[in-house]
Input
Amino acid sequence: MLTRHTTLLLILIASGCDNAKRQSDLTNQAIVIHNSMIKKVDGIERALQELSNDSTFIHQQDSIHVAKNMLASWKLELVEVPGNESHQHDNHHHAQQSIDVTDEQMLAIQEELSYKLSSIEKLIMRIKSAKQE
Output
């Protein structure tokens, strides 16, 4: 009887460890994505400022304005990944310091934010290439 309980306990502990490791892996992935986005934001802001100040892009000002609005919206959606609060917060803040979601949901949020930021980068590249046409 004791052996059955011991075996069951060991199985429960092992499955709990696997679940904790999986959650930790998901959180780590979310943190990597988040921090990568934060590093990109400064460059995106600089590029938008340069485009705004460059008279050769006068005909793309509407597109530049759209990109700036997209970035402002993105910043409002930015959510910190739990456990990553100590990373550098130079020139950025999070609209919500934390929200109550699962690790899977947090990873999905960070992936969606990364996709949106990539869309802004692509728009900037299209604006820059329009100058050459």
In short: The chain has one domain: 2-131. The radius of gyration is 21 Å. The CA atoms of residues 66 and 119 lie 12 Å apart. Helices lie at 2-53, 61-77, 103-131.
